Amino acid sequence: MFLDRIVATKKQEVDALKGALSISKAEKAISDSAPCRGFHQALVNRNRPVGLIAEVKKASPSKGLIRTDFDPVSLAQAYEAAATDCISVLTDTEYFQGSNDYLKAIREKVKVPLLRKDFTIDERQIYEARLIGADAVLLIAAILSKSQLASFYDLARDLGMDALVEVHDRRELETVLDMGKASLIGVNNRDLKTFETNLNVTEQLIRLMPQGVAAISESAIAEPEDVEFVRKAGAQAVLVGETFMRQSDVQSAVQQLMGPLTKEGSLG
Ligand SMILES: O=C(O)c1ccccc1NCC(=O)[C@H](O)[C@H](O)COP(=O)(O)O
Questions:
Q1: In a mutational test of the pocket of ligand 1, which residue from 190, 196, 216, 254 has the highest number of ligand atoms less than 8 Å from its CB?
Q2: Looking at ligand 1, which atom is closest to the CA of residue 242?
Q3: Which Pfam family is one of this chain's hits (predicted)?
Q4: Which of 88, 100, 188, 189 is catalytic?
Q5: How far is residue 75's CA from residue 173's CA, in Å, rounded to a whole number?
Q6: Cβ(60) to ligand 1 under 6 A?
Q7: pLDDT digits (tens, 9 = 90+) for 189-227
């Protein structure tokens, strides 16, 4: 199964990180660094009726190479110019052709809060995310135990970041809700084991979420009708990658998919 392969590769990367990243040095560097930008708060204060996390995504296991003229900083600047609330940056190299360097370079040029989109399986990756400039990390319920979810969540918060906790089915959602911490839950419409996508997953899972949880619908959102469908299902924001990456003009692609701004003067 592909997800198992990804996790096996991450285990090797984490072994290398154990030699390369000292937690005490990381803590010192983080205490000297600028505070994070509020990722969750940007979605609360969103610029449109449905918030947007726009993804910088060069390639994927399901689609292969998605964008050939891939300049991560220009893409992120186009997202910012289109009043995107948050940006997701894929940092996995092996399967998504992403890079920590992309996130670092985007952090230098763009003020929008950044999600480090990767497969977190070890606490060192959370320190690393904060050091490279992330404002939030992704915690995928399909690859973590309840105790890992809780401790990684607490660590992210202790380091000043938000955590987007991702689920795909009822069992994963129940685990996350049992944990009793997550206030930002992503429903991935893509089954990461089969790559099948279905927006009904958002509808089925959001209705099981208590009030006070902000739900993000992730993956396979391609048309304004899809955004409307997940809004009606209760999603407060969407996470979109491929649809934007396949358009030459990313800024206008955001406007076409997401519609006009709610707040005057948000653009630019
Ligand atoms: O995108 C994939 O093929 C994929 C395969 C295995 C694990 C994760 C995968 N994608 C990560 C994501 O969650 C998406 O990049 C993100 O939700 C955006 O999806 P899309 O708008 O469909 O590009």
A1: 190
A2: 23
A3: IGPS
A4: 188
A5: 32
A6: yes
A7: 999 989 999 999 999 999 999 999 999 999 999 999 999
Say if pTM beats, i.e. exceeds, 0.80.
yes
Amino acid 199 reads L
- pLDDT tens track for 18-72: 989 999 999 999 999 999 999 999 999 999 999 999 999 999 999 999 999 999 9
Confidence band, pLDDT 50/70/90 cuts, at residue 2: confident
Distance CA 254, CA 242 (A): 12
Helix (H) or strand (E) run with residue 134 in it: none
The residue among 266, 268, 257 whose CA lies nearest residue 52 is: 257
**From the candidates 13, 80, 128, 166, which is the catalytic residue?**
166
Quote the pLDDT of residue 264: 59
Does 144 have pLDDT greater than 60? yes
166 counts as catalytic: yes
Q: Which of 124, 148, 170 minimizes the C-alpha distance to 30? A: 124
User: What is this model's ipTM?
Assistant: 0.98
Cβ burial, residue 30 (10 Å; 0-12/13-18/19+): middle
Domain edges within the chain: 2-258
* Residue 202, both tokens: 């958002």
For ligand 1, whether the C-beta of 240 sits within 6 Å is yes
Instruction: Tell me the CATH architecture of domain 2-258.
Output: Alpha-Beta Barrel (3.20)
Residue 185, classified by CB atoms within 10 Å of its CB into exposed (0-12), middle (13-18) or buried (19+), is: buried
Q: For residues 251 and 267, is the Cβ–Cβ distance under 8 A?
A: no
